[in-house]
Amino acid sequence: MIFKKDFAWGAATASYQNEGGMNADGKGLSIWDVFTHEKGRVADGTNGDVACDQYHRIEEDIDIMKELSMNAYRFSLSWPRIMPEGNGQVNEKGLDFYDRMVDSLLERGITPYITLFHWDLPYELYLKGGWLNPDMPEWFAEYTSAVMNRLSDRVDHWITQNEPQCYIGSGMASGIHAPGLKMNKKDCLQAAHNSLLAHGRSVQAIRAEARKTPVIGYAPAAWWLWSPVSDDPADIEACRKQTFCADEDQVGGSAWWMDPVFLGKYPESAVKIVEEYMPRIGQGDMKLISQPVDFLGINVYQTYLGKAAEDGCCITVDHKPGYDKTAYPWPITPQALYWGPKFFSERYHTQIIVTENGLSNTDWIHLDGKVHDPQRIDFTHKYLKQLKRAAEEGIDIGGYFHWTLTDNFEWATGYGNRFGLVYVDFETNRRIIKDSGYWYKSVIESNGEII
Ligand code: GCO
Q1: Phi then psi for 83, rounded to 5 degrees?
Q2: Distance 336 CA to ligand 1 centre (A)
Q3: Which of 19, 124, 142, 163 is catalytic?
Q4: Is 59 among the catalytic positions?
Q5: Ligand 1 nearest atom to the CA of residue 166, by list position
Q6: Is 162 close to ligand 1, i.e. is its CB under 6 Å away?
Q7: Please, is 138 exposed, middle or buried when counting C-beta atoms within 10 Å of its C-beta (0-12, 13-18, 19+)?
Q8: Average pLDDT rounded to a whole number, residues 107-124
Q9: Which CATH superfamily is domain 8-445 in?
Q10: 76 CB near ligand 1 (under 6 Å)
């Protein structure tokens, strides 16, 4: 057996992308509720007010997970659904939704992996400065406590934050995501530092208040990843170094977000580049940020390719003409699921969980009423073969969550990118399990042996 006996096989979703119920039962506004209603923010002019209506269809989705033999489900909580103002008053009806969801998952033998923050910041906190406000760590800890109080007697797997590179980088630097800001580098790095402090405070709150012994993770994006074009040790070493270095624009890379949490310091190579923009680092900050966690979640879709120059530095190698790509279009590079787990586990000495991997595909309903998606099957088979190779080498891999369960709202692109194992007709919200969903079921039932 290559994959561990208790390997988590599931799918991942996010509250704003799947739930809908934008103002249901006392939910407050998030920055994405506001941002998507601003003209020009979303490519197809849509929003997540309804999304795939999981708020009203969660039982159906959990039944699908059961039918596909998933043993785990990664989802995020909508902070403003639980605390409409972001702090203070708790909306019990918002917690009721997640309470019922947790019970339904457990009744079907599916372990909840809850992400506390997947980008949908309460709008009221944004109005108070959002991640730039030094009170954010305390607000995030208060929200964490409200969740622990209601759900931690049954839930033990927690992920504090998903892809801070996006909610800080895309949301506050480039502005292509909510709240659409274009802040200067110094403010961005201060917001990033506050986000890391919030992660630390949340870990403290979970450890102190969880009523079941918690398993805690953190899921930054793993897009700043280089894979060697050959097995030449020089190429491998050049890519390893490049994966953890940073340049002026990529200070939001892997090491910037992972070193503070797992090594207790910012990466020297990056600090040298951005010295003049460095945030105020208080006494004890780095100790708080590097509170021990139990796994590193990596969202891996693709990798850059690299080789060693004469001096050992990494040269990025272009993909060959006509390279394989998804509908997004992102390059199809299965080796990312070998080199990513390898490089990250070597540096951080922690369990790795693939918290996202998948592809956008031009899926449609065929004449026979089914959704045949051989591309998704082949893509996932190739990536899982690489993950299995990493596991075979003894890298501690705790699970694989396919992105995503059902087609959903894909941020600034809207509904044009279908990532689901399950097709959604967005006019009726009818679900159709795609061929890939049934293929994934067979993978899970064999615990990956058929890969
Ligand atoms: C991300 C987010 C997901 C995306 C997915 C496809 O990794 O960007 O966590 O919410 O929808 O990755 O882009």
Answers
A1: -130, 90
A2: 16
A3: 163
A4: no
A5: 8
A6: yes
A7: middle
A8: 98
A9: Glycosidases (3.20.20.80)
A10: no
Q: Is the CB of 356 under 6 A from ligand 1?
A: yes
Q: Please tell me if the CB atom of residue 163 comes closer than 6 angstroms to any atom of ligand 1.
A: yes
Q: How far is the CA of 73 from the centre of ligand 1 (A)?
A: 16
Q: Where are the alpha helices (DSSP H) in 281-419?
A: 285-289, 336-348, 374-392
Q: What is the mean pLDDT of residues 266-281?
A: 92
The reply to whether ligand 1 has any atom less than 6 angstroms from the CB of 167 is no
**Strand 304-308 to 314-317 pairing:** antiparallel
- Is residue 251 very low, low, confident or very high in pLDDT (cuts 50, 70, 90)? low
pLDDT digits over 21-57, tens only? 999 999 999 999 999 999 999 999 999 999 999 999 9
Q: How far is the CA of 166 from the centre of ligand 1 (A)?
A: 9
The active-site residue out of 356, 393, 410, 427 is 356
Closest CA to 31 of 158, 128, 160: 128
Is the Cβ atom of 227 under 6 angstroms away from ligand 1?
A: no
Catalytic-residue membership of 92? no
Q: Per-domain residue ranges for the chain?
A: 8-445
Query: For the whole model, what pTM was predicted?
Result: 0.98
The three-class DSSP label of residue 433 is strand
pLDDT at 256 over 70: yes
Furthest CA-CA distance within the chain? 64
Nearest CA to ligand 1 atom 7: 299
Indicate if the pLDDT at residue 128 is higher than 80: yes
76 DSSP 8-state letter: E
Q: Is the dihedral of CA 17, 417, 423, 107 positive or negative?
A: negative
Q: Could you report the per-residue pLDDT of 319-339, keeping only the tens digit for each?
A: 999 999 999 999 999 999 999
Identify the bridge partners of residue 295 per DSSP, sorted by sequence position: 217, 351
What separation, in Å, do the N-terminal and C-terminal C-alpha atoms of the chain show? 12
What angle separates helix 254-262 from helix 185-209, to the nearest 10 degrees? 40
Q: How many CB atoms lie within 10 A of CB 109?
A: 12
Ligand 1 atom showing the smallest separation from residue 410 Cα: 11
Query: Is the C-beta atom of 259 inside 6 A of ligand 1?
Result: no
Percent of the chain scoring above 70 in pLDDT: 99
* Beta-carbon contacts of residue 335 (< 8 Å; ≥ 6 apart): 227, 303, 386
